[in-house]
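Before anything else, study the sequence and fold tokens given here and see whether the fold suits the sequence. Record follows:
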Amino acid sequence: MSYKVVFHVDWDDDQVLKMGLANITNLLKDPDSEGSEIHMVANGQAVRLFRKEFADGNRDTIERLHHRGVRFCICNNSLVKLNYSRKDMLRICEVVPAGVAELCRLQQDGCAYIKP
């Protein structure tokens, strides 16, 4: 058995991000998690948490999870609204056109939705 799950972060709150990262870390400890499809989608003000200068406290965890196959998606609509550039963000983040649309797509594809 493996899991298909999307974690949704939409508040600019470091504790919410830390909780989501801890949830993913714990999920990956489950022996059944081998081959799982795990995503984290950030939209709204939460995209700030993935800016290089604000991500230092979580960068190691994010990169470690990415190397374990976790996909980190940030919303382009939010980047535009907040006047952020792709180059401001952590390199491993994937920019998707719309975070909400990505959440819908992933759930239609069978991902469980988790909001830390």
Observations:
- Helices lie at 14-29, 59-67, 76-81, 99-108.
- The chain has a mean pLDDT of 97.
- The first strand starts at residue 4 and ends at 9.
